[in-house]
Design goal:
CATH topology: TIM Barrel
Shape: globular
Helix content: 25-40%
CATH architecture: Alpha-Beta Barrel
Structural class: alpha/beta
Bound molecules: iron/sulfur cluster
Radius of gyration: 19 Å
Length: about 325
């Protein structure tokens, strides 16, 4: 089973819910994880790995994955089985010579996304070193970081890291920080202070949320989350349909349920507060909108970017 990785403060928060609330369900181990349904690599990342630590799935952007370390082990995570492998918990040194060569050759790539793991598990020095190397790629315009650190360990954003973000944002056309947050109970004053500091770096603030059965699959939770994020100048960007990860079946919900929720959200929130509802087609066929036919019942298949259909349960 995926190990428990959770900062102490969060263990207390889960205890405050008696192990029953939206935080406990996301972060505490559950016997239901022994259910063997689902995939070890539900989104087919490995089909698009062009080099160790580099995934090129969409034309204009690459995922750079210099670490598999996270501040938390989310029980629904599509990479949860990589966390189980202790060897994978180490930082590793991607072959930067090959990565830079690949990026130079592909001038259609204009965005590099730091992922992982969580990219802010890297030291400031390491982060700065990678960014310095990426500055040598003239067609790279946008940098993006996906992270849970601002809520899990807000203290990670100290002066030096904030300065690095400011410098990076000034150098490139823009830097986006995508906060991973699934429920408004994850927010507190420390998170707010951290996000306020990050906003002063000039970076673009976005959020991504995973729709999870028993955690946030009701219109009130989602309305509260997205409206409060917008109030704090964080644009709700993505709402992911849960990936079919093995051991995460208790979080799965149907596409029809998700589409109905999106429909209800339109009644509660202005369009600009509603994130894109997306689904990763299992097998590495990419992200597609999960709402493309929400006026109809789900027909049992998804259509990828090339127009091919794929059966979906
Ligand atoms: S922080 Fe993100 S990558 Fe890390 S375990 Fe949670 S969902 Fe997965």
């Amino acid at each position: 089973m995926t190990p428990l990785i959770l900062p102490n403060k969060w263990i207390e928060k889960c205890q405050g819910e008696n192990g029953m609330g939206p935080l406990s369900k996301q972060f505490l181990p559950d016997d239901q994880e022994s259910n063997a349904e689902g995939y070890y690599d539900p989104i087919g990342d490995h089909n698009h790995q062009v080099l160790d630590g580099l995934i090129h799935r969409y034309q204009n952007r690459v995922l750079f994955m210099p670490t598999k370390v996270c501040p938390v082990a989310c029980r629904y995570c599509f990479r949860k089985h990589e966390i189980e492998n202790e060897k994978d918990q180490q930082l590793f040194s991607p072959d930067m010579h090959s990565i830079l060569h690949y990026l130079k050759k592909h001038d259609e790539i204009n965005e590099l996304i730091f992922s992982g793991g969580d990219p802010f598990s890297l030291s400031d020095e390491k982060l700065q070193d990678y960014l310095k190397q990426f500055k040598t790629i003239p067609h790279l315009k946008w940098i993006r970081f996906h992270t849970r650190y601002p809520s899990m360990i807000p203290n990670r954003f100290r002066e030096r890291l904030l300065n690095i973000l400011t410098e990076t944002n000034n150098y490139f056309s823009g830097v986006s920080i995508v906060l991973h947050i699934n429920h408004w109970d994850e927010w507190d004053q420390e998170v707010q202070d951290c996000m306020d500091k990050i906003s002063q770096t000039g970076c673009n603030l976005l959020s991504q949320t995973v729709l999870l059965k028993g955690v946030n699959d009701d219109v009130d939770s989602l309305t509260t989350l997205f409206s409060n994020l917008a109030f704090h100048i964080i644009r709700p960007y993505y709402l992911h349909h849960p990936d079919l990860i093995r051991g995460g079946k208790h979080f799965y919900l149907s596409l029809d349920t998700g589409r109905k929720l999106m429909h209800q959200l339109r009644d509660k929130l202005p369009g600009w507060m509603i994130p894109q509802y997306i689904i990763d087609i299992p097998g590495g066929h990419g992200k597609v909108p999960a709402t493309n036919s929400d006026s109809q019942l789900f027909q049992g298949y998804l259509i990828d970017r090339t127009g091919k259909t794929h059966p979906y349960p």
